[in-house]
Amino acid sequence: ARIIRLAEYTPPSYAIDSVHLRFDLDPAKTRVHSRMAVRRLEGAAESAPLVLDGEDITLLTLKVNGEFVAFRQDGNTLVLDKLPETFTLEIETLNVPQANTQLAGLYMSGGAFFTQCEAEGFRRITYWPDRPDVMSRFHVTLRADKAQYPVLLSNGNLVSQTDLDGGRHEAVWDDPFPKPCYLFALVGGNLVCREQTVRAASGKTHLLQVYVRAGDLDKTEHAMESLIKAIAWDEQRFGLSLDLDRFMIVAVSDFNMGAMENKGLNIFNTKYVLANPATATDADYDGIESVVGHEYFHNWTGDRITCRDWFQLSLKEGLTVFRDQEFSQDLAAASGGESARAVKRIEDVRVLRTAQFSEDAGPMAHPVRPEQYQAIDNFYTATVYEKGAEVVRMMQTLVGRAGFRKGMDLYFQRFDGQAVTCDDFAQSMADANPDSALAQHLAAFKRWYSQAGTPRLHASGALDTAARTYTLTLRQTLPDTPVQTGKQPQVIPVATGLLDARGNALPLWLQGQDKGTSTVLVLTEDQQTFVFEQIDAHAVTPSLLRGFSAPVILDYAYTDAELLHLLAHDADPFNRWEAAQRLTLSRLLAAVRGEALNLDAPYLDALRAVLRDPKLDPAFKELLLTPPGEAYIAEQLEEVDPPRIHRARQALRTVLARELAQDWQTLWDTLTPEGGYSPDFASAGRRALRNLAQAHLCELGQATWLGRVYQRVKDADNMTDRFAALAALVHVGADLTKPALERFAAQFAGEALVMDKWFALQASAPDHDGQQLDRVRALMRHPAFSIHSPNRARSVLFAYCQANPGAFHRADGAGYAFWAEQVQALDAINPQVAARLARALDRWRKLAPAYREAAQQALRTVAESATLSSDTREIIERALA
Ligand code: HT7
Ligand code: ZN
Is the distance from the beta carbon of residue 359 to the nearest atom of ligand 1 less than 6 Å? Predict the structure, then answer.
């Protein structure tokens, strides 16, 4: 397959200033007519060809200025030579939406038409220079049978709606903003909508609509509320107003990712729109709020300013994830106070450290701004999104909140309406804050964009009581990654505080300057020392990397006593949580190494103290008492035996269940619901902690508890509690599990998203009896299973192969053989989803020998498949390289 390289970027030769698109929608033969106003760009040679991309479509006609002309076809491109300086290009193509199982381009779901054009779906609709730096004004006419497809939507403003002969009708849409083709969208179907007008701070009114299938309208309130909050937040925090009269969200059941920010017409996976208390959990409510926010924020960071090329993907994705994280933090803090902000931060860091750190350490390691790819769809990764967001967050840390706002303002002033680069963004931030550490060290800072791998931050401290100094030495190393060696130091902001022996925060003096009790040290070299003066203490415990101020692995040789001290006293809630994680992790790692699981009294007492502390949020307690996940534990080891890790973690849960039994019981008794269901931060936190208590109480195996939990599966008044009860039964494998699952399925058979949970819960269940793979195969034979539905495929295949390492990794290799079979089956239907499943074996080289050989064999089996898509091939080849 062809490798696309950043170094080979060349600007386009032609602009398409405007396009008239006409769709005659039909599931079996949709005709797409496009009329483009094309102009040769300054600097392009007169002889420059116009290169158009096209994939899986039939070309019907092509005319330049009304005349048929000759063209060359070269694979998936169509090349036009000898063109005038300006001209009209007309192209007609034929699409077969009902045969489009890839869900890229124009496809059908539930009898309606949808499009997905990012990254390269537009070429599956019509011939076009499918690259984000070609921005055009779109004018779109949609025609379809009126009875079957009464709703016809596209980007921008509705110009007209007209009935046509033969029961067909037509809608005309005009988008006033030039955009790249990846932001084009259309929807045609029988949909209903919740709508509301809102008045923005600017005084302008906007029509907001959330479209769903009939019957789902009662699940749209939270999405609408989230959208309204997002609009208000972006105005207030960044001065960015909605620039369209109408903003639409449409939910679709079959979707490759979470959602898509098409200008004015966001298309969403139903998972991130539909919620009511009976069908959605607190996590679903949170997910909707953040994804609705994310897509809305793209309206400026993505749509108004877009990417010059796909290597710059993090320009919009890293920045927009940062913005959605800030949005969720600000909303949580508004209702739950500052500790709610910390809870959100911990949740985000957990995702980063699990998904991104392992990516950075594996065969798919790539910089935030990748340098090459075969299939761009493979680079919608945790690195581009989550690490990209951390890079933006570090900028904010270095320039301050107000400085960050200035940088954003300058970025829009300079680049509104353009397709630009990550460098352009960083330069704006630096230029708006010329005295900042960011501006002073911009070149070194930008290595965050170009160097792959997770830096290690080695820290050591020395107290000199005579000199009254505490010297902190910070050193950074960055490991080699595939194709990148010999890396340069990056700029690492290290938020730091110092605690004395009583847990008090020490005043920080650096070079005679008063820094309060928390300061950001900026490491720019391989190694630097920072000398804190006027230290009047006999012992100092450093609290480093507060709030996780940089995406690095902190190496500091903390003793248990120091960690217990931080857990009890640190003013930084993130580091209190982190201290608990480290204490738990070291005990887990000892157990994985084969030592007896030793949960000593000081550790247990510390956890008890947390559970009993009335000042701490239930949500924070729940995070603190949840041990690191199996994938995160695996990353700490040289050689991995996943079932062994699972057993160690399970053993820890059992001991915690027993040792803290009284506290779990008290929590269960006292955290009873207050009033009806509400997804707000405080109520969700109480539910989370009570359900954690419930899960531990079930571990004790007492019949009364299991019966009580079974009863909750039957009569809980919300999905969070009902599902937590079901999960607790499935986890312990109690006799009541089977009737509980059956009952649940009978009750929710008509709710696809709930059934996804039902499938996922079973596929991710522990392998109590060696039969888990058979159960997964049985789930695939269930009449409600379909590999064509990405949500359903994810709920079984990903839940087993990726989210259930203890059961998937088997010494007999049966899990891997199953994976190989499913990757190939899925690849023939939907390469994007298959390539994601393929990544379940990214870390095969770390596996203990028995697993490793079987995994390699499975990878080779897939590699030998002659028909593999370039998406899946890229993942497999990198894994085997
Ligand atoms: N920008 C969107 C990315 C996306 C996507 C990418 C590849 C294939 C299908 C896709 N659907 C959506 C989503 C986002 O980050 O907001
Ligand atoms: Zn995004």
Answer: no
Atom 10 of ligand 1, nearest CA residue = 257
CA 682 to chain centre: 24
Q: For residues 103 and 89, what is the distance between their CA atoms, to the nearest angstrom?
A: 27
Q: How far apart are the first and last CA of the chain?
A: 15
Helix (H, G, I), strand (E, B) or coil at 353: helix
* Most informative mutation of 118, 122, 310 for ligand 1 (most atoms within 8 A of CB): 118
Q: Is 325 in the pocket of ligand 1 (CB under 6 A)?
A: no
CA atoms within a 13 Å half-sphere pointing along the CA-CB vector of 116: 23
Q: Which tens digit of pLDDT belongs to each residue from 218-228?
A: 999 999 999 99
Q: Residue 119: CB within 6 Å of ligand 1?
A: yes
pLDDT category, 520, cuts 50, 70, 90? very high
pLDDT digits (tens, 9 = 90+) for 437-473: 999 999 999 999 999 999 999 999 999 999 999 999 9
Provide CB contacts within 8 A for 738, sequence distance 6+. Answer: none
User: How many angstroms does the Cα of residue 392 sit away from the middle of ligand 2?
Assistant: 14
746 pLDDT more than 80: yes
| Domains observed in the chain | 306-438 (1.10.390.10), 456-557 (2.60.40.1840), 754-764+771-881 (1.25.50.10)
Comparing C-alpha atoms, which of 675, 620, 679, 803 is closest to residue 281?
Answer: 679
Does the beta carbon of 380 lie inside 6 Å of ligand 1?
Answer: yes
Q: Which residue's CA is the closest to the ligand 1 atom numbered 15?
A: 317
Give the residue, by CA position, lying nearest to ligand 1 atom 1. Answer: 260
Q: Kindly report the number of other CB atoms within 10 A of residue 501's CB atom.
A: 12
Q: How many CB atoms lie within 10 A of CB 870?
A: 16
- Check residue 739 and give its pLDDT: 98
Q: Whose CA is nearest to atom 11 of ligand 1?
A: 257
Task: Determine if the pTM surpasses 0.90.
Answer: yes
